[in-house]
Specification:
CATH superfamily: Response regulator
Number of helices: 5
Largest sheet: 5 strands, parallel
Helix content: 40-55%
Structural class: alpha/beta
CATH class: Alpha Beta
CATH topology: Rossmann fold
Number of strands: 5
CATH architecture: 3-Layer(aba) Sandwich
Strand order of the largest sheet: 2-1-3-4-5
Radius of gyration: 13 Å
Length: 129
């Protein structure tokens, strides 16, 4: 683990419940997990729970998209170095998402849980605590 003491907190903001079940099976016991299924609750959870890393979808129900969540979090000083990993179905959006402050962006169709797990580990290793 990348730092000693407490378990790394992973906030997953994703509305696909089947994908959330897969994330839970993959990451339970490795990270302290919290799931939110819309942008507004995801943003509130991030601000109050202060996760170490965020896994974020772009298409979310409600008034806030994942892009809105990403933009709002990057305005917060305490989230300046928190890795935000965007996994999306939005084609041709990677450069826009990276310009908004994502630490990593990939298409859902191009990844599997093992590559997501590796990417999260890599992001955490690069993050100064």
């Amino acid at each position: 683990m990348w730092y000693i003491g407490s378990m790394v907190k992973l906030l997953i903001i994703e509305d696909d419940l089947l994908l959330n079940e897969a994330y839970e099976r993959k990451f339970d016991g490795i990270y302290e997990l919290r799931f939110e299924t819309d942008g507004e609750r995801g943003l509130r959870a991030a601000l109050s729970w202060e996760p170490d890393v965020i896994l974020l979808d772009i298409f979310l129900p409600g008034r806030m998209s994942g892009l809105d969540v990403l933009t709002d979090l990057r305005k917060e000083k305490k989230f300046g170095k928190v890795p935000i990993f965007v996994v999306t179905n939005l084609p041709d959006a990677e450069s826009k998402i990276m310009k908004l402050g994502a630490s990593k962006c990939c298409m859902k169709t191009d990844v599997d849980l093992n590559s997501i797990a590796k990417d999260i580990e890599d992001l955490l290793e690069k993050t100064e605590r």
